[in-house]
Amino acid sequence: QVQLVESGGGLVQTGGSLRLSCVASGRTFSSYSMGWFRQAPGKEREPVAGISWSSGNPYYVDSVKGRFTLSRDNAKNTVYLQMNSLKPEDTAVYYCAAGRAVYSGALFSRDAYNYWGQGTQVTVSS
Fold first, then answer.
1. Residue environment code for 11-25, b if the CB has 16+ CB neighbours within 10 A, otherwise e
2. Which sign does the torsion angle of CA 6, 51, 49, 46 carry?
3. Residue 46: CA atoms inside 13 Å, Cβ hemisphere, count?
4. Which of 8, 30, 36, 91 has the fewest CB atoms in 10 Å of its CB?
């Protein structure tokens, strides 16, 4: 069982930055791929970024490439999502997810993840 706790959300102006953190419980964090998803009101939950358990390489959806940076610290059981140059369309609840040994090709699939955090609200004002 893995429990995920997100933090770092808030209200920011267009062009601002936020850093989201997700702390995972358990001793096998390094064997989990981690993902960030977001859900805006009235929309489906969509992928934002994922980081492979094996290579540690991050992957991003096109809409956040060049603005968001995903990293992980296995010693702290934590993943970080640094979000820069935020836009109003980034407004959503952001969810952290963990999936055991998810390979890079599936990082953007919700079904690949077994565990989800409670979400943290990110609001970008125009």
1. ebeeeeebebbbbbe
2. negative
3. 16
4. 30
pLDDT digits (tens, 9 = 90+) for 70-114: 999 999 999 999 999 999 999 999 999 999 988 888 999 999 999
SS3 category, 101: coil
- Those residues whose C-beta lies under 8 Å from the C-beta of residue 4, and which sit 6 or more positions away, are 22, 23, 24, 25, 96, 97, 98, 115, 116, 117, 118
Q: Which residue has the tokens 């952290």?
A: 96
How many residues make up the chain in this entry? 126
pLDDT in tens, 9-45: 999 999 999 999 999 997 788 889 999 999 999 999 9
CA dihedral of residues 107, 109, 106, 121 (deg, nearest 10):
0
